[in-house]
């Protein structure tokens, strides 16, 4: 998985979501899980590749949110776990 392969330091799996979206001209409503993946910027492409290879959707949602600030020891831990410089 993402953590085992060092693409992410932590993955929160949030169940119980319902997504409403348009696909191929139809409105769909489906249960989904939300993954909150903690990783380094340098690993985002690896995460996207992993999700695309393992997700059943043709167009899986993967977005990156830049972190401008945070708890320094936590951010350092992420970098150490995924193998980027601290």
From TrEMBL:
<protein>
    <recommendedName>
        <fullName>CutA-like protein</fullName>
    </recommendedName>
</protein>
<dbReference type="InterPro" id="IPR011322">
    <property type="entry name" value="N-reg_PII-like_a/b"/>
</dbReference>
<dbReference type="GO" id="GO:0010038">
    <property type="term" value="P:response to metal ion"/>
</dbReference>
<dbReference type="Pfam" id="PF03091">
    <property type="entry name" value="CutA1"/>
</dbReference>
<dbReference type="InterPro" id="IPR004323">
    <property type="entry name" value="Ion_tolerance_CutA"/>
</dbReference>
<dbReference type="GO" id="GO:0005507">
    <property type="term" value="F:copper ion binding"/>
</dbReference>
<dbReference type="InterPro" id="IPR015867">
    <property type="entry name" value="N-reg_PII/ATP_PRibTrfase_C"/>
</dbReference>
<comment type="similarity">
    <text>Belongs to the CutA family.</text>
</comment>
């Amino acid at each position: 998985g993402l953590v085992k392969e060092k693409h992410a330091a932590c993955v929160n799996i949030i169940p119980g979501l319902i997504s409403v979206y348009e696909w191929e001209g139809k409105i769909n409503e489906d249960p989904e899980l939300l993954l909150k993946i903690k990783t380094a910027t340098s690993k985002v492409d690896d995460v996207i590749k992993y999700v695309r290879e393992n997700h059943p959707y043709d167009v899986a949602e993967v977005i990156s949110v830049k972190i401008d600030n945070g708890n320094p020891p936590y951010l350092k831990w992420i970098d150490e776990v995924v193998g980027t410089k601290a």
